[in-house]
Task: structure prediction
Amino acid sequence: MLLSREKTEFYLTDLETPTGKIINLTMAALVLISSGIFVAQTYNIPYNIRLLLDLIDTAILVIFAVEYIIRFWSAENKLKYIFSFYAIIDLMAILPFFLGAVDISFIRLLRWFRILRLIRFIDQKFLFASISTEDGLIFVRILFTLFAIIFVYSGLIYQVEHPVNPLYTTFLDAFYFSVVTMTTVGFGDIAPISEVGRLLTVLMILTGVGLIPWQVGDLIKRLVKNANQVETVCSGCGLAFHDVDAAFCKRCGTKLRIMSK
Result:
């Protein structure tokens, strides 16, 4: 039985029901598999294995394309959906599939943005169900955000430098360069030689200088705030820390059981 547009939209965004979890976790797993395939393809692997990986990746791309079409069809406000952040990320993830027959080298760069599709799950509680403290949740989000950005930069710099620079032989070389550049350590043992590569390096440095202190500052502010809280586990959602004078959970509104000291 075919689902209505409203039910389809619900299941594509829902992360509470079993059906919604299965759909969204499956898509998240496909993103990780696809990203892993691209990393593996930067290494010298046997031709038959490379061919198999290409077939798997093509199948995943088809699934992503079908998902994008279904999300567009089920969206109540289609124009708003097209220009939403996650829809743009989704489109960039499948664009190489639609333009695969066109000989445009920069199209290959877009495939690294697939890892950013996982950002849609950062703010979802079910992925971090075992983390009950706010500062722990923020710390996990910071690590994931930094990893996603470093992964994308690594893919971009690899695609740009690998054809012209012998220092970038595998994805690990690009990943190493991205980490030392974004953290402004800059060992200098690996450096880009192309103009685009140097431009990416400047963007990496600016991102590292701006993003890392901002994220760490957010965590510090949260830690200072939590220092004035007490441990009172909410029976509704499991949130462990609340303000000293709180009578209800700030996340779900459940009445708190005040622990006697």
